[in-house]
Amino acid sequence: MAKLRAAILGYGTVGQGIHRILQDKREELHQSLGLDIEVGAILVSDLEKERPAAPGVRFTDNFDEVLSIPGLQVVFEAIVGEEPAYGYLCRAIDKGCHVITANKVMFSRYHIDLHERAKAKNVYIGYEATTAGGVPVIKTLKNLLQVNSVHRIQGILNGTSNYILTSMRTDNSSFEDALRDAQALGYAEADPYNDVSGMDAYHKLMILSALAFSEQPDRQAVDVKGIDAITLEDVKRAQEEGLRYRHVAEIIQHSNGRLEASVGPQLVGPDHPLYAIEGVNNAVAVDTNYIGTLTLVGPGAGMYPTASVMVEDYAEIIGKRAGFMISI
């Protein structure tokens, strides 16, 4: 039986989810792909920190030890920030490893560079988990773009902001109270800046732009606003008018090819594709030339939605290498 060796970079919520799913689905993946998966090492920043056990797996804080795993073929990256993540993935690709990432901040900046590097080494990059969690927007866009042209993308790309806006409307909560509830439920971090400022959605929008239009707008020119200035009175007034606040990341390609992007609160009515998206759900509405508007909805964050799409990326990559699927 063929054995595939993998490594996981980071063992927080997502890293733990990846390990659990790989163990839970080990037999099923073996049946479908004919491979036995073995996690050879998990990279962490602090070996002394208490964490859930991973029997039979070596924990290390040295990336050289990860690269030295005999037969290493796939690296799952679930750490935070541009560095050292970018450097790690470059080294993994140069070694001939496929890489799968959930790191939206890093990937939004180095998307094109990493793809060019991977192409030169004949390996694949999976990045479904960088954008909209469990919503398969990357796979869907890749399929659409084989025939369709995309004119506009609108998305609720941050579940925390959507939860807060929903709670303010349905529970008459202030922004501060709704944020505290989101933190208590694990939807928001102790430092919620990236969620409520719009920066999280911005990074995801840049990834979608690179895929849909093969380029990004001038990143400095993108108007990014958060939801922290919206009051309960604003939400009530909008509701009286039959409208709802949604935090929307949007990019449009004009007829001359110019890209225009924005991230911020919008008032939307019942005819808008994002009007009915509630709670922590994410949604992406894609306007195309042939099929019109397609809207994808699903859970946008959490251990299993994010980890599961990373494992799906892994299965797709191995399937491609085995000749079961056409190459992207």
Question: What do you see in this structure?
Answer:
The strands form 2 sheets. The protein has a 6-stranded parallel beta sheet, with helices on both faces. It has a 6-stranded mixed beta sheet with strand order 8-10-9-7-11-12. Mean pLDDT is 90; it is low at 323-328. It is of the alpha/beta class and 328 residues long. It contains 12 helices and 12 strands. It has helices spanning 13-24, 26-33, 63-67, 85-94, 104-121, 137-144, 159-171, 175-184, 193-197, 199-213, 232-240, 303-321; strands spanning 2-9, 35-43, 58-60, 72-77, 98-101, 125-126, 150-156, 223-224, 244-253, 259-268, 281-288, 293-299. The chain has 2 domains: 2-132 and 304-321, 3-Layer(aba) Sandwich (Rossmann fold); 137-300, Dihydrodipicolinate Reductase, domain 2 (2-Layer Sandwich). Helix 5 packs parallel to helix 10 (199-213).
SS elements, strand count: 12
Largest sheet: number of strands, sense, barrel closure: 6 strands, parallel
Q: What is the CATH topology descriptor of the largest domain? A: Dihydrodipicolinate Reductase, domain 2
Tell me the strand percentage band: 15-25%
Pathway: Amino-acid biosynthesis; L-methionine biosynthesis via de novo pathway; L-homoserine from L-aspartate: step 3/3; Amino-acid biosynthesis; L-threonine biosynthesis; L-threonine from L-aspartate: step 3/5
EC number: 1.1.1.3
Keywords: Amino-acid biosynthesis, Methionine biosynthesis, NADP, Oxidoreductase, Threonine biosynthesis
Domain Homoserine dehydrogenase catalytic: 136-313
